# Entry
Amino acid sequence: MSKKKAARPDYLTIDYGTLGVMTIDEFRQALWTDLAVLRDLHNVRYVSAPKLKVHISDRFGDRGPLRRLEDGKPI
# Structure
């Protein structure tokens, strides 16, 4: 009796929630680092239907303001 190989999921989830509240620059660096790991260590060359969901907060982790660049009005 042979064992069946486990099916690989169709997508990959990278959870940054464990890092807590971070600046947008820290988040950008984390993204670039993980993309480089996927490319260099796992030989990922193409992606389809990527999705980015960001919870915007202030430095304390409370829901942060999101404002228009042109006039500063809340969105």
